[in-house]
Amino acid sequence: MSVTALFRGKFGQKSQDNQEKHRAATVYPGHDEDEDDDSRGGFSRDPIRRNSRFYRSMRKKRLASSEAESKNSVMVDISVASDSRHPEFRADMISSYRTHNIHSRDIRMLSEQTAAACTVEDVRGKTMSSKQADQENSNLRSVRITTSFLYQEYRDTSKQQEIEQRRQRENLSPEVGSGTGAAGSSVAYPPTIQLQLRNNARSLSLWQNLEAVQNSGLLMQLPQKEVIMQEAMFELVTSEASYYKSLEILETHFLRNPILFNTLSQSDMHFLFSNIEDVMKASERFLMDLEHRMEESILISDVCDIVYNHAVEHFSVFILYVTNQVYQEKNYRRILEGNQAFREAMALLEKHPCVRGLSFTSFLILPFQRITRLKLLVQNILKKAEENSEREANAIKAHQRLEQIVKECNEGVRKMSRTEELINIEKKLEFKCKSVPIISHSRWLLKKGEVQQMSGPNSTRTMRSRKLYQPLYLFLFNNLLLVTKRSSSGDKFQVLNSCTRAMLRTDDLEDQGQVLANVFNLRLLENQEDREVRYMLKTTSMSDKLRWMYALTPNRRTRFMSTSTHQTDSPQVQCIQSYSSQEPDELSIEMADVLNLLERTDDGWMLGERLHDGERGWFPSRVVEEIQSKEVRAQNLREAFRIQQAQEGGSSRIGIRVKHTDGVFT
């Protein structure tokens, strides 16, 4: 079986002649055919192909290993046939193994041996005859995965299906509609629901829909939980094939296009594509091993062991690529604005049918999207794995390694962008007081913006509005606050006061009419001159006031409890529309993300904590919907708690269980 059949769907189906023409059109003129010649450097190497020399050599090693395993299995099977309990199998099996070029002397020797009982785990249960084995091998060879999604399309479809699945679970909850439900109960949702939700016109490929699976009779023997586990592992495989398909378009349609290549300098090519070739090699190796695992048996034994090995050996290339994304985006905008030939060539390439209306930038961000999505897919397998099983152990190891890679990717991106931001801010500052060094590796910007300083509530009756408000501009870093005001020129900021963040205190003021609406007190317990300073500050909206107060004093108590308390009464929301943060204190969220709600405002903003990684931030309420069912919220917390245990060292492997008592998980 080959997952390359993913690339043969109804979209982009081409004849052999068209493929040859396309290949000829996307290779540089005068290019060598030796794929292993990397001495020329740059981007002159041929595109990586599934039938490339690298791929064929790796495949040959795999086949050699498979033949060795096959010969070992022959010894076991013939010994079983030689047992007096299986006389009817003996002639058929020896005849069958002659077709595999096994030496007759080996057959005679093996047939004379007395067999020990041979057991097969789980669904196999009974010893499989040679005819059954041949039938299964025939089924394996006939497996075809028919999805034709690009990775961008796969992500959108998969996330939408996850949202619909959660909605259906909530609709089936006994408390929805009746408003009741025991806090300590746990609804066991029928596993078939999770499968039916993906069986529609827009669904992804399903393991259970494979012809080989349906012909094998496994669906009648396997428990529903195992079918769901097979689907989870199968999705990881098919999504990797979809991801590789999109990478191939990035390489063949954009990177290797001679028209686009001629519009760019070598340095610009490096800025745009970075080490994408190394990323493709890592994906090719990974996909090949996943394919090999599926070729072993239609019943997938595990995939997380493969994920872990590749995460350790090959996935470090993601860190370099993602870290360079800051410069990649900036240089892409620069080239697009200043290079007309590039702009025209890019517009033409983006209109080609093979990209399906997707932008060039959607292909550039694929590696970071993939490594984060891969972590979530492993999380999904971990949630479904039986506790204290080998699958769980492999999933925990794979998840921990992927979590580390994602963290290093995020830190790399943040470090570059934060340092650049600090340099730009320092250039705009003019200290009218004791100067403070701004640039530091341990410092980054949390929030900035303009507020109005008020003279005080008693002066509102005597002073006009124009004298009541004094505009201030605040720069809040993770460990420092700068209180400034704009210079007369407008491009500089005069620093009036500075204070460490730990020495800040805020007090909310109740609204007392329009003048005192959205007002709070800010105290600097110890400024740069070691004295206390007080400010009465007014913001433009209620949400802006709360965002400033929570940013200035992060330990301030929120309206709702944090995820760490494991309170099922805390509200939860799921994202139904992706949102990219516009301010440093905002949180970028993706479709199907589940968040624990900490705070909400009347003007359409929420403060939330994402369950799968604990990240906090503000986002508009229009992009989420609230999860009403207490049972669904409880299940989300159980799954988040199990993932948390995996991140903290796999303590769930040594017997820790999640206990639900009076609405609290302990």
Automatic annotation (TrEMBL):
Protein name per its UniProtKB record: Neuronal guanine nucleotide exchange factor
Domain (DH): residue spans on this chain: 228-412
Pfam families: RhoGEF, SH3_1
SMART domains referenced in this protein's UniProt entry, alphabetically: PH, RhoGEF, SH3
SUPFAM superfamilies in alphabetical order: DBL homology domain (DH-domain), PH domain-like, SH3-domain
Domain spans labelled PH: 444-557
Record domain SH3: where: 568-629
Record keywords, A-Z: Guanine-nucleotide releasing factor, SH3 domain
Region (Disordered): 1-48, 156-184
The keyword Cell inner membrane is annotated on this UniProt entry: no
GO MF: guanyl-nucleotide exchange factor activity
Keyword flag Acyltransferase: no
Superkingdom of origin organism: Eukaryota
Compositional bias (Basic and acidic residues): 156-172
PANTHER family in alphabetical order: EPHEXIN-1, GUANINE NUCLEOTIDE EXCHANGE FACTOR
